[in-house]
Amino acid sequence: MRELYPPRHPYNEGELKVSDLHTIHFEESGNPEGKPIVLLHGGPGGGCPPFYRQYFDPEKWRLVMFDQRGCGQSKPHAELQENTTWDLVNDIEKLREYLNIHQWVVFGGSWGSTLSLAYSQTHPDRCKGLILRGIFMLRQKEIRWFYQEGASYIFPDAWEEYVKPIPINERDDLLTAYYQRLTSPDAQIRLEAARAWSIWEGSTSRLFPDLDLKQRFGIDAFAEAFARIECHYFINKGFIDPEDKLLLNIDRIRKIPAVIVQGRYDVVCPMMSAWELHRAWPEAEFIVVADAGHSMSEPGIRTCLMEATDKFADW
């Protein structure tokens, strides 16, 4: 199993105003003369923790990370206005142009895989390669599985905590019930719902549940952005129409070198979605990690991702 590269600091940080309302925070680390790669984080609303830098050889990569609208160090915090999939696709292009990068490799997991597909299908000429993990394509069956019925059968103990803020008579549509609370004018109602929503994902992301991860997901500032933005996207069907658009448009990226890494026991983004992507796009290398769930920090997934970044760096 691979160990992460040593921790390091960015050599460049800044803010880019992408609309009248939103400013995104970005950073660059590694080698300023290295091959450019952009990391698209999960959620939506998850932000970029510093340990993400450690998946990339600092001698070979010029790593670009940024916090998507409304989360991490981007401003305004937890903002839902002007926050759609296509706003984020435009932000990625604005950042590429701002940093004077002609082409880059795109690395994304979970929601980051969704955004990677949307971006690469919109701007295929800007993508030298794709490294995708924990495939999520924001379809109703995927959202229903995790937030209404399905994952609940595997984690009934964590599910019990997830549904606590919602009265029994509203539990037939948990997405709507949560959206009402996450957009409530009452800060306490918003926070209670945000923590329950966020902790549910933190409780189910690894094959062997991790208390530290669960606690991190429950931190107030993280939970509010994470839950509000996720629910906003999901209630709006990801702003993707038709919902199979990312599968239907595979021909646009078919010739781009790609690796798909998927945990066999991923409960957050079940393997069926990765399998359907693989069937539509057999040209992409498809790796199933037999002893892993959803988290990129699980040993098998970490190893496969680092092997993929090393391989792409040498192309």
UniProtKB/TrEMBL annotation:
Molecular-function GO term, any one: aminopeptidase activity
InterPro entries, per the entry: AB_hydrolase_1 (IPR000073), AB_hydrolase_fold (IPR029058), Peptidase_S33 (IPR002410), Pro_iminopeptidase (IPR005944)
Reaction catalyzed: Release of N-terminal proline from a peptide
Its EC number(s): 3.4.11.5
Subcellular location, record wording: Cytoplasm
UniProt KW Cytoplasm keyword: yes
Superkingdom as given in the UniProt entry: Bacteria
Broadest EC class assigned to this enzyme: hydrolase
Domain AB hydrolase-1: 35-296
Family: Belongs to the peptidase S33 family.
Protein name per UniProt: Proline iminopeptidase
Species lineage: Bacteria, Bacillati, Cyanobacteriota, Cyanophyceae, Oscillatoriophycideae
Name of encoding gene: pip
